[in-house]
Amino acid sequence: MGNHSHGGPNESGTVATAGQDSSETFRDPGLPPHRPRLADTDPAAAKKAERQVSWLFIISILGTLLFFVSYFVVGHTTNIADLRLQNMLLGLGTACAMLGIGVGIVHWTKTLMPDTEWVQERHEITKEEDRQKAAKMVEDILDESGIKRRPLIRNTLIGAMALAPLPAIFMFRDLDTSKLSAGEMVDRLRYTMWDKDVRLVRDPSGLPIKASDVQIGSAFHVIPDGLNELHEGKLNEKAKAVVLLMRLDPSKMQISPGRENWHVNGIVAYSKICTHVGCPVALYEQQTHHLLCPCHQSTFDLTQECKVIFGPAGHALPQLPITVDPEGYLVAQSDFKSPVGPSYWERGER
To answer: How far apart are CA 329 and CA 209, in angstroms?
Structure first.
């Protein structure tokens, strides 16, 4: 056996030991060298970047104006094509208004504002000096941003930021112009066109549905009879009254007391409006008897009276009590027993 007292890991210096060279310190490498941008050295490039930033702010202004034009001029009919065009223009205008400001500020920062790294040493300042130093910092920020010496950027930014919030203000303001009281507004949300003996008809054809037409596993998108004949408020009424009609084996249904006669031999009708944020529930899984909302994946179990089994929805889909008339057509027994759609403060059973 050889003597390993020399050249071993502890003696050779390959492994650091506690206390070894504890006084040694690392030299501060300092900041990396600054690499000037093209706009820092070429006045023409700086002017070009300034114009680009201003054009982005102008695009934001034009986007806001497009929003107002589409909001007040386009889509004031019941024509679906006009409404789709209006929605597209509203979205395009809002996107340009927001992106124009955001991209413009980012481009301004990356091309024109100083990008030199620097270190500020921490030091104590007295309260007397605090205000002066804060004011000096604000002045330095304004000087470095170049907003004082670049009036084109400043003026277009002010215009874009002044107009950008207006679409949101008008949208919230125009949610309802009926000047109804709080109680009347609640009733408007609570009641739909469904009533006793109102026939269930297919959407959008308006053809009535016989119980014999509904087979196990089938699903129908349903509206109340007479909805298509409305000339005013048709879309508002449809948004509350649309229904999904399905049929399943009655032996698989878990029926609560009081709902025993709300279905017709396993044919059930439930509101199509998701109880999360009001998206249309349009996906029916025949094998699992689940209804899915495509917006946020809320899932409702049809065998458990559309109880929420997954997702953010707050409560079950309201059920529409149905029966058949003497001619064999499906009709409503009444309106929904609970309000449709998302939760709100005054919501409750009728």
So the answer is: 6
3-state helix, strand, coil in the chain (%, to 5): 40, 15, 45
Rg (CA), the chain: 34
Is pTM beyond 0.90 here?
Answer: no
CATH code matching the domain that covers 185-332, chosen among 2.102.10.10, 3.30.950.10, 3.40.630.10, 3.10.50.40 = 2.102.10.10
Query: Between 166-173 and 80-111, two packed helices, what is the crossing angle to 10 degrees?
Result: 150
- Per-residue pLDDT tens, the chain, 350 aa: give them: 445 555 555 555 555 555 555 445 677 777 778 888 888 889 999 999 999 999 999 999 999 999 888 888 886 666 778 888 888 998 999 999 999 999 999 999 899 888 877 676 666 655 666 777 777 777 777 677 677 777 888 788 888 888 888 777 776 666 655 666 656 666 777 889 999 999 999 998 999 999 999 999 889 999 999 999 988 888 889 999 999 999 999 999 999 999 999 999 999 999 999 999 899 998 899 889 999 999 999 999 999 999 999 999 989 999 999 999 999 999 999 999 988 988 765 555 44
Peptide bond into 326 cis (omega under 30): no
Distances (CA, A) of 322 to 28, 257, 261, 317: 80, 16, 8, 15
Q: 350 is written with which tokens?
A: 């009728």
